[in-house]
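Quick one:
INPUT:
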């Protein structure tokens, strides 16, 4: 029961804050939206920290908790930066790229956490590269992207999909161990949310329904990744 409360309390508070943020941002109240987004991100960082620091990890003999927690912190930084671009419109492109760089750093940290645990690294990497290539091909054929965004896109999508492929591979080779299942589910949601974000940001029209989808999938993905630490052994 205690374990469940540790997971549920930050998650529920975070979901409420995230939902409020979505509503406030849609009204173009960007300063309070940034504050709400930052507060929501703090919740999944708190969740990750509790999982990292409590006695639930006493028997965990890997470096996964430390690097996952650091990845969550960079995810929170990316959240704030991506929304600051609406507050400081003149520097919007630079702030957007800085936000993507923060998320990329987070994904690299997630990769550092996952790779030592992988018993199918080569196969997972090959699958990840193939899937990333397909996604990028569809994206670049769908609309024009500025060179700077294209370079970031290739590196970023490559890292995200590779992380997800390795997480799925670890899930399979672990015999569907609970922590690995939760992590893989979070990684899949994260990847889908990023693809939705790209199409909604660079596509011909921006749809609020896609914005809700992107932000919801992303947030639940981060919550799942943070929650996996409670079951790490």
């Amino acid at each position: 029961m205690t374990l469940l409360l540790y997971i549920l309390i930050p998650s529920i508070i975070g979901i409420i804050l995230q939902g409020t943020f979505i509503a406030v941002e849609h009204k173009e109240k960007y300063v309070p939206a940034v504050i709400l987004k930052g507060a929501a991100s703090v919740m999944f960082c708190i969740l990750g920290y509790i999982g990292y620091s409590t006695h639930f990890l006493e028997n965990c003999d890997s470096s996964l908790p430390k690097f996952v927690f650091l990845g969550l912190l960079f995810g929170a930084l990316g959240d704030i930066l991506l929304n600051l671009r609406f507050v400081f419109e003149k520097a919007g492109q630079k702030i957007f790229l800085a936000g993507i760089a923060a998320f990329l750093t987070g994904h690299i940290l997630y990769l550092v956490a996952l790779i030592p645990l992988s018993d199918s690294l080569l196969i997972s990497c090959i699958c990840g590269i193939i899937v990333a290539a397909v996604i990028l091909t569809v994206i670049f054929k769908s609309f024009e992207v500025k060179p700077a965004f294209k370079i970031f896109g290739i590196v970023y999508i490559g890292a995200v999909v590779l992380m997800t492929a390795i997480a799925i591979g670890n899930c399979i080779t672990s015999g569907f161990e609970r922590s690995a299942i939760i992590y893989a589910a979070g990684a899949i949601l994260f990847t889908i949310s990023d693809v939705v974000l790209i199409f909604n940001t660079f596509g011909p029209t921006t749809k609020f329904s896609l914005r809700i989808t992107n932000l919801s999938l992303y947030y639940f993905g981060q919550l799942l990744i943070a929650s996996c630490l409670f079951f790490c052994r």
